[in-house]
Specification:
Blueprint (H helix, E strand, L loop, with lengths): L7 H13 L4 H8 L3 H13 L6 H10 L8 E7 L5 E8 L9 H9 L15 E10 L10 H4 L5 H18 L3 E8 L26 H20 L4 E6 L8 H12 L6 E3 L7 E5 L2 E5 L7 H11 L1 H5 L3 E6 L6 E5 L2 E5 L8 H5 L8 E7 L3 E8 L2
Length: 379
């Protein structure tokens, strides 16, 4: 059935609300009290008609035989009253990149997520212990061909690996009173359907649609959280951005926060920023994906920004990922550790002779004495 005609007045009303909302479709819909999808449809039709452009740009669009979507910008020739050309004007269509803001899309998507079922608390735990499960560089959604890279890898393999390795690590760790599921960045290989790194625009080998990757990632994290909750009285979840998932991490974080909104034993930290800093007894923990600066600079930043916590703790450790191989050093009173990645190698890593091995760790700390044991899972 053809789409019914929409009056020019209705389309102009949508454009006006969009402008008043700072070029944002979701907020424009709120301003006029209209359903989001209805408003978006009206605005898109107004765009195709070029009604979001200025009068001069609309005239240029019509002269060139373009519609409003095709007309992204151009030059307008300016003439005086005698018809003599006196210059040119460059124009660009208004940027509506924020029209469907990522966070607002996430909110709409997860609004109907059901809360997780009640998870029985463990009968016995050691309240003076805390176990950190750092998940570094899982790159869910990556595609690797074993004949080229030495090991097959895809969305299913990656999600299954996260589930399996976390479960094995939980089973082998002590029943500490607290646990931290810590995403250290690059949980997903791509950030959107463009299949490129957001900043460098490197082409990525991906396995499937980003929607499916996001769904698999959230499900794998939920399984891991609920498995850990069977062994630990309190589970804190923190998801950090990486250079591959600088926007997608928000969707994971918001979805998990919504899922555990009614579970008092699971806390999903819905906080902005690329650093995680947490003081626990005589221990100071920190984490960052590792793509934003050298570890020495990050340690100095931590000592300055968290001087009180630094001065009142004896055991300090910072985790980073990003480079996929293990490295550690004592830096000015803090242990810095670069974690091995969970992911297999991709074609780029194989072609450049990178040989890092995949691994996941669980690190247990005593509130007074610091790190007391580690569990390492691989294979």
């Amino acid at each position: 059935m053809p789409t019914p005609p929409l009056s020019r007045e209705a389309m102009l009303e949508a454009v006006s609300a969009w402008r008043d909302a700072g070029n944002n479709v979701a907020r424009g819909a709120e301003l006029v009290g209209m359903n989001y999808n209805t408003f978006k449809s009206r605005f898109e039709r107004a765009k195709r008609a070029g009604l979001h452009l200025s009068g001069g740009a609309q005239a240029a669009m019509q002269d060139a035989g373009l519609n409003g979507v095709e007309a992204k910008g151009g030059w307008i020739h300016n003439y005086d009253n005698e018809g003599k050309k006196v210059g040119t004007t460059r124009w660009s269509a208004p940027d509506d990149a924020r029209s469907d803001d990522l966070i607002e899309r996430v909110k709409r998507t997860i609004a109907g997520i059901e809360a997780a079922p009640v998870i029985p608390a463990p009968a016995h735990v050691s309240d003076n212990l805390l176990t950190v499960y750092p998940l570094a560089d899982a790159h869910i959604g990556m595609m690797a061909w074993g004949q080229e890279t030495g090991e097959d890898y895809d969305t299913k393999i990656a999600a299954d690996r996260v589930r399996s390795w976390v479960a094995r690590a939980v089973d082998a760790s002590p029943a500490s009173g607290e646990a931290v599921i810590l995403g250290v960045g690059d949980l997903t290989h791509a950030d959107d359907q463009q299949n490129m790194t957001p900043r460098s625009k490197h082409i990525l080998d991906v396995d499937t649609r980003h929607f499916k990757t996001l769904d698999a990632t959230i499900a794998a994290l939920a399984y891991s959280i609920e498995y850990a909750a069977r062994r630990h009285s309190k589970v804190t979840v923190r998801i950090l951005p990486g250079n591959h998932d600088q926007n997608t991490y928000l969707a994971v974080m918001f979805a998990l926060c919504e899922r555990y909104r009614d579970n008092p034993r699971v806390t999903v930290q819905k906080e902005p920023g690329e650093f995680w800093v947490h003081r626990w007894g005589q221990c100071l923990f920190a984490a960052h994906h590792g793509h934003g600066g050298k570890p020495e600079r990050m340690v100095m930043w931590l000592a300055d920004e968290h001087a009180a916590d630094w001065g009142q703790t004896k055991h300090r450790i910072m985790w980073t990922g990003h480079l996929h191989h293990h490295k550690s050093a004592d830096i000015g009173g803090m242990v810095w550790e670069q974690l091995r990645a969970i992911t297999a190698r991709d074609a780029y890593a194989a072609a450049n002779a990178y040989t890092a091995r995949a691994q996941l760790q669980a690190i247990t700390f005593d509130k007074e004495h610091g790190e007391i044991m580690r569990v390492k899972v691989a294979g």
